Amino acid sequence: MELLAALILGFLLDQLLGDPQISCHPVRLLGNLIHFFERHFFRWGKGKKHALLAGGAFMAVTVCVVTAFFVQGLLFLAGQISPVIHFAAESLLCYFLYAAKDLRVESMNVYQALKENGLEEGRKAVSMIVGRDVSRLDEAGVIKAAVETVAENTSDGVIAPLFYMAIGGPVLGWVYKAINTMDSMVGYKNETYLYFGRAAARLDDAANFLPSRLSALLMVTGAFLCGLDGPGAWKIFLRDRKNHASPNSAQTEAACAGALGVQLAGDAWYFGVLHKKKTIGDNRRSVEAEDIKRAHRLMMAAVLLSLFLAAGFQLFLAG
């Protein structure tokens, strides 16, 4: 029951405080750890395909093991001091894994910028949360980018960490975060990271396989509960959930597109290169800025449902 209380308290802290901008933030420390190993292992295998593959795999395993031992050690030391300190540490470790409030704030910045200051400010705001070339986006493209970010990160930034924390506590939650962060840093299919980042990318695909599908199903359920198009969410989820190069990214995007009754994804520019992508959803109407708010509503419905599931799972384990 202590873990369940920590999961809930961590979520409430995220909703109240958001992600703290501190230099010793655990995710920043994790990024420094990944960069340290990347620098050493990448140099070791530079220019040699098999050495890069091996170095990337060794880095991925090492980062996961170091993360697990560090978090477990921290909880052990906290428990040696007192049960209260242990619970506080557990709750804080859970809190740092949630990104629901920041996701809402950053995407609402896009909404406010479009509403109050126009397209150029909207592009600047959306550039903070996407990696595509925003200078080529029209207003509809900016809105779609924000909605897609909310949809995809409902899984990656909230439900997936909760999924792993409910199963294995903060230790497993932070191992997931390590995998996800490695993928965001080195899991690219470009000339630099094609081989070195492959292990991190494959691990991320595997780690997100179940959570992404669970998140999509919760979004479909949430669409019925929060006044959006539930049947449409289910239809588009079944039809378009594989319309992405990643096996996971289109799962929640498809559910969201169907719930909103709009078309998402499609071609996008990255670093001056046009990437051809399949669309997700039916173009029943044009997107509008209010769709960002609707995506938030859908996200929160799915997240609250996931908390109920996590609570039920923990109560089941408690007997």
UniProtKB/TrEMBL annotation:
<dbReference type="GO" id="GO:0009236">
    <property type="term" value="P:cobalamin biosynthetic process"/>
</dbReference>
<feature type="transmembrane region" description="Helical">
    <location>
        <begin position="298"/>
        <end position="317"/>
    </location>
</feature>
<feature type="transmembrane region" description="Helical">
    <location>
        <begin position="84"/>
        <end position="100"/>
    </location>
</feature>
<dbReference type="GO" id="GO:0048472">
    <property type="term" value="F:threonine-phosphate decarboxylase activity"/>
</dbReference>
<keyword id="KW-0812">Transmembrane</keyword>
<feature type="transmembrane region" description="Helical">
    <location>
        <begin position="158"/>
        <end position="176"/>
    </location>
</feature>
<keyword id="KW-1133">Transmembrane helix</keyword>
<comment type="similarity">
    <text>Belongs to the CobD/CbiB family.</text>
</comment>
<keyword id="KW-0169">Cobalamin biosynthesis</keyword>
<dbReference type="Pfam" id="PF03186">
    <property type="entry name" value="CobD_Cbib"/>
</dbReference>
<comment type="function">
    <text>Converts cobyric acid to cobinamide by the addition of aminopropanol on the F carboxylic group.</text>
</comment>
<comment type="pathway">
    <text>Cofactor biosynthesis; adenosylcobalamin biosynthesis.</text>
</comment>
<dbReference type="GO" id="GO:0015420">
    <property type="term" value="F:ABC-type vitamin B12 transporter activity"/>
</dbReference>
<protein>
    <recommendedName>
        <fullName>Cobalamin biosynthesis protein CobD</fullName>
    </recommendedName>
</protein>
<dbReference type="GO" id="GO:0005886">
    <property type="term" value="C:plasma membrane"/>
</dbReference>
<dbReference type="InterPro" id="IPR004485">
    <property type="entry name" value="Cobalamin_biosynth_CobD/CbiB"/>
</dbReference>
<keyword id="KW-0472">Membrane</keyword>
<feature type="transmembrane region" description="Helical">
    <location>
        <begin position="51"/>
        <end position="77"/>
    </location>
</feature>
<keyword id="KW-1003">Cell membrane</keyword>
